[in-house]
Structures are given as C-alpha cells and as structure tokens.
Amino acid sequence: MLNIAIVAGGDSGEYGISIGSGRQVEKNIDRSKFVPYLIEIRGERWVCRQGRQVLHVDRNDFSLRVGTKKIRFDAVFNAIHGTPGENGILQGYFDLLNIPYTSCDVMTSALTFNKAYCKAVVASCGVPVARSLHLFARNRPSAARVLDTLTLPCFVKPNNGGSSVGMSKVKRRKDLGPALVRAFAEDDEILVEEFIPGRELTCGVIRTRGGVVALPVTEVISKKEFFDYEAKYTDGLAEEVVPAEISEEASIRCKTISVMLYEKLNCRGVVRFDYIFDGETFCFLEVNTVPGLSEASIVPKMARAHGWTFTELITRLLEETL
48, 58, 75, 318: which sits with the fewest CB atoms below 10 Å from its CB? Predict the structure, then answer.
C-alpha cells in the first residue's frame, strides 16, 4: 500500500474549491492500492485532520507523525488551484525532497500560470489567440491608453490565477477603469483581452499508460454574461455539454491542437485547454494545469464520458506519477 498525500487549499481565492477537489479525491481514491492523507495548506499552516486530531506536517521532509509512527509519502496528488500549487512553488519544494507529484513541473507550471507569457508561447505554436495587453501595477496605464490599442468589448482579468476571480467583461468605456482596479486588487499583473464571439469549448488531456489521451471536447454554456466564478460553482448557472455538439471534424481538430500543446508545453498529469470556437477557428484562452476535481468540475465529467470512473482517473494519474 502506497501513502498518498492529497494537497489542497492554497493561498488564493480558489481555496474552498481546492478543498472540495481534495475531498473528492480522498473519497474516490482506490483504497486497495493507496492510503490517502488529505493535507490542507494555507500559508504557514499545513495540517492533516485524523478524526478529532489535527496533525501538523513536518515541512523539513514533508512527513506526518501519528503517535510514534512517522508517515512518509510515496507521491503527492496535487489538488491546489492557484498559488502555491499551480504556479511551480510547491513543485519546486517537492523536487527538492524528491517526492513525485501528479501535476506539471516547475517550469511548465510557472509558464502556464502566467496567462500572458503562456499565450505568447501558444501563439508561437501557430494557435490563434486574442489581441491583448499585459499590464503591471508598477506602471498602470489609464483606461484611455488601453483603448488606444484595444477595442471594446474586452475582458479584464488577473494575469496569474484561475476560476475567473477578479475578472470583468467590459462593454462601455466608463466601466474599464473600475475593471482595471478590480483586477489589480487580485494581482500585480493583469491581462486585457479583446472579446472574441463564439462558443466556449474545453478539452482535457492526460498522459497515461504509454500514450497521450484527449478526453471528450466539452462546451460550457453560461447563463451569465460569461463563465465567471459564480457561474462555475453555483448550480444552475452553467451547463456543460459532454461531448460538445460539434462536428466530428471540429472535435478531432480541437483534440489535435490540445495534444500538440500538451506536448509542446511539456505538460504532466491531467490538463484542460480552453478555447473560443467561432465555427471555423479555435482561439486559445488559457490552460488549467490543476483543473478542478470537485463534484461540479468539468474534468470528472469528461472522464465519465470517456468511459472512466473518477476512481480510474485518479489511479491513472498516480500510476503515471509513480
């Protein structure tokens, strides 16, 4: 039996979602093969709850002491969305300790977490991206200067982060300034992107048992203006159509692009690529290297449509890691 640390929580606005993902992994993991320990991380507090007992992680070697027994981990299942689990920080720590983990490595995690830099690499691979501006808090331009380069409507979002926290869709000139303030409240870097009309499609990719598998393409239909944090995690505000109702040719193209980007970006684990599809072109939005695994999340639905149970998905991720 292998000891698996499921790390969840983190220091971003996605803390609660991450805890939900971690609990779902703990609930569905194959206990005939693995002994799970859910590790909640927030700032300096790294703990594992065993009934009424709260055990503190020894960060010198990432271990737990249960009575007189010291628990060491064979692998880490990374369920932290946002910092420090999705941007390379935690990956560097585990690399130093030589503990394998289910997500991308330091370099890929750091690159893909930075939306602007990731878009530049994706564009160099020949995949279309929206026109955008990468802005920094130390040199904030006015809304008027932004509109000298980009046209409305546009999206304003933190450059580092996920789940659409701090994101706004701006249609009117007067709303751009407040949207910039809102995004800068979440991050020192923000991204302003021109709006591209079309359908929002997403494709999960996983390396497993000697090959790279693209999961069924999924369409996300939000009942709000866009697929924001509330729409993602509130029942009834969004619909995921799995598989997406698109032509077989379009589905194959989306999967082909996603597998290519998975390889070019040197991804590991299960990764989700998001696009806007206008009927002809797939325009890259972003990549999620630690996608949600809660009951409301898309990847488990993709896996089911592919014929895998959630337990099998978890097992495949850990097999590849080990």
Answer: 58
